[in-house]
């Protein structure tokens, strides 16, 4: 399909005929290619942020995390989940019920894993830093507390929600746990790390 034709109408007249269908198709093709190039450039655009691993409980150094537009989308989803659950809020020693806090932590653990699993294989090379960081936070920053305390506390708490303590609130009963102070200290430290992770996801998600 020719875009234009050039010919001689007579010995002294040259004519040019435009193929308007071909011109329109060419313009549309150029616009599509320009849009795709711009979109790919935005996706590939890299940002970086320095992370203190100590604050997240995943190490003892500062590392640089490189991320792009797609990583920001993942970070936003993680930030929303953290911001709307107890895991992303400071532990209230007077009012929070530990078993409910553990429910929130466990739910986030599952949701975060599902979000990471949703990342297509084709994007793994571009989202690798964020994936590794989140895996570290889950496995090194969050899991140890749940492994050490959750089952023991739930068993004890279930055994002590009975008629002997019916006049007490759940908060008062949980304070009777033999290792309450040690559990509380570790819970607050873990909770603080998750709040730092929430702040980090917010910074990544909303970076321009």
From TrEMBL:
Membrane spanning stretches: 20-37
Domain of life where this protein originates: Bacteria
Entry keyword set: Membrane, Transmembrane, Transmembrane helix
Name the UniProt record assigns to this protein: Uncharacterized protein
Source organism per UniProt: Dorea formicigenerans
